[in-house]
Amino acid sequence: MSVDNVARQANEAIIDAFSNVDVIADGHEPVRGIFTSPSEIAKLDGGGFVDAQRGTLIVKSAEAGHLERRTAITLQFENGTRQSHLVVLPENDGSGRLKLALGQENVGDTSSNQPESSSISY
């Protein structure tokens, strides 16, 4: 058995054991994944905060080839809650694991994000 096969089997076993979310994308069967969102928040001396890290999702690459950049996904958690995200950056490490950096999706917003005119006065 090659090292690549051992790594692939180990990654699949880890995802099976620690998956905590169903990943739903239109037109595809749900896949299981490991979702982490550490919400690392850095406090600023002058007040406020900076969200320092995006949520990530790890899935089996063999099951999730359809999850490409800008794919809208819904995460269905075991407690019944749902979150909508966009895939920002998919990273396939070649060992059976696909790591996805996630961004927020503007659910239901089909309008342009740019206003017709600026509301800023100089």
Please name the defining characteristics of this protein.
Thrombin, subunit H, 6-stranded antiparallel beta barrel, 1 helix, about 120 residues, mainly beta, elongated, about 15% helix, single chain, two-stranded antiparallel sheet, about 40% strand
Structure description:
The protein is mainly beta and 122 residues long. The chain has one helix at residues 3-18; strands at 21-24, 31-36, 41-43, 49-51, 56-60, 72-77, 82-92, 97-104. The longest helix has 16 residues, at 3-18. The chain is elongated.
Helix-strand layout with pairing:
Elements: H1 3-18, E1 21-24, E2 31-36, E3 41-43, E4 49-51, E5 56-60, E6 72-77, E7 82-92, E8 97-104
Antiparallel strand pairs: 1-2, 1-6, 2-5, 3-4, 5-8, 6-7, 7-8
Mean pLDDT: 82
Order of helical and strand elements: HEEEEEEEE
**Separation, N- and C-terminal Cα atoms:** 69 Å
The unreliable regions are: none
Number of strands: 8
Secondary structure category:
mainly beta
Biased composition (Polar residues): 107-122
Pfam family, one: Phage_attach
Region (Disordered): 103-122
Summary, kept brief:
The protein is mainly beta and 122 residues long. It contains 1 helix and 8 strands, in the order αββββββββ. A 6-stranded antiparallel beta barrel has the order 1-2-5-8-7-6. A two-stranded antiparallel sheet has the order 3-4.
